């Protein structure tokens, strides 16, 4: 069924008896043309574009848990394309354009809100760096606007402009950026993929990859062996685990990233705000809660929980930026497992194993990249060649020295 305002009115008048399940619960077939490991945002987006754009219907998504229970529901929901490097900005701008038409594309309310994002700067050096980034964005077709302190104060008067250590001197704004409802994005992609014939198999954990003579023949799962002509891996923080089944050691480490939500407040934040003197970012949800986060925890882990030092660091950043946040009560917190690559940029590429493809290393950028990641991975699976905006995301760039180091932090994943 397609959703519409008329459908909502009809169901309201008839007792809501006509709604159907959002997607099927099929048993796995013996063989698929493509199996996508991972039922998160990237895996489901891949299935959607693979079926709708590239016409491949004999596709399955296998997910060890339930749809929306992984990293796609464990983030701060920010959508933006304010990158600088040539390897990144065209990709994320492509993603933002897909975000702008997502709800019409999948016929589902993802609560996309283009409320804008402002990156604050506190020194002359930061101002020059943001000027350069803004120019790079504009050259790649994105929107960017540099504001001085008075302009920022007019839009965000509640910020601490006169902090002796971190005076706010201005900010770089992208008006088309914003937020979206994270789990609704997963549900929308899942529903659309299912409507186009994709089998979504939940509670089906991949326990091994069947590889013979250098070719991947399918996946061993908790529901038995499922054959496939091609297997795509999009499992975020578990990338190292799954690809280790193929004997591959990835240039990736897994770290936990914590996020927080305050109690519901009256509308106070009109946009997403990032602190330039520390790693802190905040927005306000439609329910009124302040959604915020900061740095990853510095140790390797697969646990979806963090520890107190990062909580303290994030709260310190919030208090330095907007002291009023200290009066808000914390409602809940959670952790998502980030697959941190050595240069802070992702990988979308074929592997040395025939028929095995990899999508991972998204670091902090996973949610905002969801549409473009799925589109580009689907393009790779369908055509065996990289999409034009993802040609730099090669697996061998660490061997050839063609890294995409957006933050200039070197080869330490915990610094990206």
Explain this structure:
The chain is an alpha/beta fold. Helix content is 27%, strand content 27%. The strands form three sheets. Strands 1, 2, 8, 9, 10, 11, 17 and 18 form an eight-stranded mixed sheet that branches. The protein has an eight-stranded mixed sheet with strand order 5-6-4-13-14-15-12-16. The protein has a two-stranded antiparallel sheet with strand order 3-7. Helix 2 (41-52) links the parallel strand 1 and strand 2. The chain is globular, with a radius of gyration of 21 Å. The mean pLDDT is 95.
Number of helices: 11
Helix and strand composition category: alpha/beta
User: Could you estimate the helical fraction of the residues in percent?
Assistant: 25-40%
Distance between the termini: 43 Å
Poorly predicted runs are none
Topology:
Elements: H1 5-13, E1 31-37, H2 41-52, E2 59-62, E3 78-79, H3 89-100, H4 102-106, E4 117-121, H5 124-139, E5 145-148, H6 149-155, E6 170-174, E7 178-179, H7 182-195, E8 199-201, E9 206-212, E10 215-221, E11 224-233, H8 239-244, E12 252-264, E13 272-275, E14 280-284, E15 289-300, H9 308-321, E16 330-341, E17 347-350, E18 356-360, H10 370-383, H11 397-400
Parallel strand pairs: 1-2, 1-11, 2-8, 4-13, 11-18
Antiparallel strand pairs: 3-7, 4-6, 5-6, 9-10, 10-11, 12-15, 12-16, 13-14, 14-15, 17-18
Helix pairs in contact: 2-7, 2-10, 3-10
